[in-house]
Amino acid sequence: MTSAAARRPAIPLWVVLAAAFAAVLAAHATLLRLPYYWDEAGYYIPAAWDFFRTGSLIPFSTLSNAHPPLPSVVLAGAWKVFGFAPLVTRVTMCLVAAVALTAVWRLAVITTGKTQVALATVLLTAMYPVWFAQSSLAHADLFAAAGTLWALAFLLEERVWAAAVCFALAALAKETAIVTPLALAVWYLVTPISAKTEQILGTRARRIAALLAPALPLAGWYVYHWRKTGFVFGNPEYVRYNATSTLTPLRVLLALAHRTMHVTLHMNLFVPVVAALGCLLLAPVSETNGSGADLSPLRARIPMTQQAVLYVVIAANVLFFSVLGGALLTRYLLPLYPLVLLLCVNTFRRRLESWTGLVALSAAAFLAGLFVNPPYRFAPEDNLEYATVIRLQQAAVSTIVEKMPGATVLTAWPATDELTKPELGYVKQAIPVVAIENFSAQEIEKALGMRGSYTAALIFSTKYDPPRLWLSLGRHNEQLDTRYFDFHRDLSPGVIARVLGGHVVWGAERKGQWAAVLRFEPVPGATEALRRFVLPQETTSARR
Asked: CA dist 160 to 101, 187, 339, Å?
């Protein structure tokens, strides 16, 4: 239950929103004009672009994944008012990030009643590398996080129908957001409540109904999608990759280990988490001082009923995304990071007099994580590495445009879209492509069979491979990653050029990411080169 003081915030929410938007915008100033990246280019921008041009809620310039249309509607609205450009898109996403951070502020004030805790939690959330990177990327996950966090704030304020509206908006942004209200409905169903709480909130049935209600608009969307496409949950390949192929028990256990790491250790999150665990060994300090000599009340914990809600949300999402979701993307867990940080920050304050020192240490760790890559494989969109990838591909595409007019380019996704869709910001006119899946030995063997159909190649690292891989279980780990998580090894530009009979005309490598442009000339014996050189090397590396 919240106090009257918590209902009347000392700082108006519109001030928090304005300050958060200004800060996020300033922090992302050098990133706002970047063209679109990876899943932005592959789905979200094409889907919004189709709606912007035609009003179609079902994308047709890319395969429909049955994602709900709210992000497309919001982005198209921004483009309608301010024009179609990456700058408009990224500023819009910064505004969505500010809305989500305002929810974090409100959630912290409701649960702790302390503006200092709210400020520290918002600051750490905004600086956390995964959150920072997603704050200007046009993915549905940020929309869903904003809706979910506001829904939790309303729920803890005992405004269950306002929470239901926000949960519905979250689910209409990203369908997987529905797991949170459903999990909470189950929690309220099995948890006993006091008579006083029952009197304030109404009947158990009313609360459960409010949490189940967001499933109705989502179901309506799926009915609409089915009537338009014949598929309920998207194209069959999407369903196979994200659902039916993920249900192996071993795969679920491996994914659960990854997801647990994501919410406790990843991108230096271990700094506040370990610090909070250490603080639990200390006694709570007085609200006025840490001497223990007076009778002042001890600093309060977040009420256990509210903590339980946070733990249910964290656990439900970790379990859900361990079972479903082909890619182990950390952005799927975006609403969880503020909750983890809120629990950590209030533990700092409750157990340590000079608690702001641990906030500063955590902030320093997050700042380092934005620029320093971890010593294990990760998705570049988890920190500023994604900007490195974009700039490398920009340079590669510019080389093709300037030095190879009329070329047909061998490449893999997302460069296939970057070269053929001018709206993504890489080219002014479409360039014909020949597509392969990636740059592994098997795919280069396929490319060899299509040798006469392309005159150039844009190749790049499709997986981040750190210069020194510290955290690895060796050959067995790579076999499991290959089997369950789409791991592969890209061949180097020199090897690809030698096998396909070309030469490298441009190449660059930055922080473990690389890209190159190749020009091809007919070379006799290329098939023999593949058999003698490439395949043995791939076999050797897989055994390592």
From this structure: 21, 15, 19
Beta bridge partners of 510: 513
Ramachandran sector of residue 202 (left: φ over 0; alpha: ψ -120 to 50; beta: rest): left
pTM over 0.85: yes
Q: Measured between alpha carbons, how far is 438 from 444 in angstroms, rounded to an integer?
A: 8
pLDDT tens digit sequence for 16-49: 999 999 999 999 999 999 999 999 999 999 999 9
Q: What is the 3-state secondary structure (H, E, C) of 277-316?
A: HHHCCCCCCECCCCCCCCCCCECCCCCHHHHHHHHHHHHH
pLDDT tens-digit series, residues 334-385: 999 999 999 999 999 999 999 999 999 999 999 999 999 998 889 999 999 9
CA 53 to chain centre: 27
- Reported as type and span, the H/E element at residue 507 is strand 502-510
Whose tokens are 């904003």? That residue is 146
Q: Max alpha carbon distance in the chain (Å)?
A: 89
The SS3 of residue 84 is: coil
Mean pLDDT value across residues 440-468: 86
Q: Which pair of tokens denotes residue 147? A: 């809706």
Can you give the C-alpha Rg of the chain in angstroms? 25
pLDDT at position 390 over 90:
yes
User: 370: which DSSP letter?
Assistant: H
User: Looking at the predicted structure, is the pLDDT value of residue 6 above 80?
Assistant: no
Half-sphere exposure of 437 (CA within 13 A, CB side): 10
In 3D space, the residue among 51, 135, 133, 137 whose CA is nearest the CA of residue 86 turns out to be 137
Question: Distance between CA atoms of 80 and 466, rounded to whole angstroms?
Answer: 42
Phi and psi angles of residue 474, each rounded to the nearest 5 degrees, phi first: 80, -150
For 410, phi then psi, to 5°, come to: -80, 125
Residue count of the chain, please give it: 544
